[in-house]
C-alpha cells in the first residue's frame, strides 16, 4: 500500500524538504548544477574505504547532472528510492542522504544511506541530516521501519548510528557483494514507534496467497 500523499508530483517534492538548524535537505534540482560541480571540484580524495571522493572532472558536465536528476526522479516516481541533497545555510552542497529500496506491502520498510563530503566531517552534519530524512521517512512516506546496514569496521558510521539511538539488531552475514567479496553488515534500525509515532495499519492486510 503506497500512501495517498505520494500521488501529486509537486506535493511530493514539497514533502521531501526539511530545514534544520544549520541545513536544508531536499531533492536536487536543475538550478543546483553549479553547487554540485563546485562540491565535486572542492572535495579531497577518498579519506577511507567508504568515502567515494569526488567525481572525475570529465563527469561534471551539465548533461551528466541532468542524467542524475532524471534517474533520481524516476526512482522517486516509483516510490522506490529517495535521494536528498544536503545543503548548508550558505547554499553549499555538503552531502546526501537517502531512503533506499522502499518495500511496501506488509513490510513498509527501507534502507538508510548517508554521505557527508569529506571536507565537512566531524561537525554533526550527518546526525542533523539523517534525523531529518528519518522524519521524512516516518511522517511523509509513512514507513514503519528504517534500517542501516554498516560494515563492521566503518567506525564513523557506527558512531553515527549509535548517536542517533538506532537499535543494533545484529550482524547480517555475507549481505552484500562489494569490492569483489561478500561483506557482513551490522544492522541498526528504528521503527516509527521508537520516535513516538503510531503506524496506521488500515489497509495493510496480510492475505493468504495460496
Ligand atoms: C559516516 C559519515 C556520514 C559521518 O559524517 P559526519 O558529518 O562526520 O558525522 P557527525 O559529525 O554527524 O558525527 C556523528 C557521530 O559520530 C561521531 N564522530 C564523528 N567523527 C568521528 C570520528 N572521527 N571518530 C569517532 N567518532 C566520530 C560524532 O561525535 C557523533 O557522535 P556524538 O553525537 O555522539 O558526538 C561520514 O564520515 C561519511 O560520509 N563517510 C563516508 C560514507 C559512509 O561511510 N557512509 C555510511 C555507509 S554505511
Describe the structure.
Helices cover 28% and strands 29% of the residues. The protein is globular and about 55 Å long. It has 210 residues and is an alpha+beta fold. It has one domain (4-195): Aminopeptidase (3-Layer(aba) Sandwich). A hairpin with a 3-residue loop joins strand 1 (18-19) and strand 2 (23-26). The relative contact order is 0.14. The longest helix is centred in the first third of the chain and has 16 residues, at 62-77. An eight-stranded mixed β-sheet has the order 1-2-3-4-5-6-8-7, with helices on both faces. The model has no long low-confidence stretch (mean pLDDT 94). The protein contains five helices and eight strands; from the N terminus they run αββααβββαβαββ. Bound molecules: coenzyme A. Coenzyme A (COA) binds at residues 50-51, 114-116, 121-127, 150, 154, 156-157, 159-160, 163.
Report helical residue fraction: 25-40%
**Adjacency order of strands in the biggest sheet:** 1-2-3-4-5-6-8-7
Helix-strand category = alpha+beta
Taking the alpha carbons of the first and last residues, their distance comes to 20 Å
CATH architectural grouping: 3-Layer(aba) Sandwich
Question: How many distinct beta strands?
Answer: 8
Count of separate structural domains: 1
Q: Strand share of the residues?
A: 25-35%
* The CATH top-level class label: Alpha Beta
Order of helices and strands: HEEHHEEEHEHEE
Using only CA atoms, what is the Rg?
18 Å
Q: CATH topology, what is it called?
A: Aminopeptidase
Largest β-sheet summary: 8 strands, mixed
Which residue ranges are poorly predicted, with pLDDT under 50 across at least 5 consecutive positions?
none
CATH-assigned homologous superfamily: Gcn5-related N-acetyltransferase (GNAT)
The averaged pLDDT comes out at 94
Number of helices: 5
Bound molecules: coenzyme A
Amino acid at each position: 500500500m503506497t500512501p495517498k500523499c505520494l500521488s501529486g508530483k509537486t506535493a511530493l517534492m514539497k514533502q521531501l524538504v526539511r530545514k534544520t538548524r544549520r541545513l536544508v535537505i531536499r531533492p536536487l534540482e536543475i538550478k543546483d548544477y553549479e553547487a554540485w560541480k563546485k562540491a565535486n571540484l572542492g572535495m579531497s580524495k577518498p579519506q577511507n574505504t567508504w568515502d567515494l571522493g569526488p567525481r572525475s572532472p570529465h563527469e561534471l558536465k551539465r548533461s551528466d547532472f541532468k542524467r542524475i536528476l532524471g534517474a533520481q526522479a524516476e526512482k522517486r516516481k516509483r516510490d522506490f528510492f529517495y535521494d536528498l541533497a544536503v545543503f548548508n545555510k550558505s547554499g553549499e552542497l555538503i552531502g546526501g542522504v537517502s531512503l533506499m529500496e522502499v518495500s511496501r506491502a506488509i513490510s513498509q520498510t527501507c534502507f538508510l544511506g548517508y554521505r557527508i563530503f569529506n571536507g565537512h566531517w566531524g561537525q554533526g552534519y550527518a546526525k542533523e541530516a539523517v534525523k531529518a530524512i528519518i522524519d521524512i521517512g516516518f511522517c511523509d512516506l509513512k514507513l514503519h521501519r528504517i534500517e542501516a546496514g554498516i560494515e563492521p569496521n566503518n567506525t564513523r558510521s557506527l558512531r553515527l548510528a549509535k548517536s542517533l539511538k538506532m537499535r543494533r539488531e545484529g550482524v547480517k552475514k555475507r549481505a552484500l557483494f562489494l569490492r569483489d567479496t561478500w561483506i557482513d553488515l551490522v544492522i541498526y534500525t528504528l521503527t516509527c514507534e521508537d520516535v513516538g509515532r503510531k503506524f496506521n495499519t488500515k489497509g495493510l492486510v496480510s492475505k493468504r496467497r495460496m
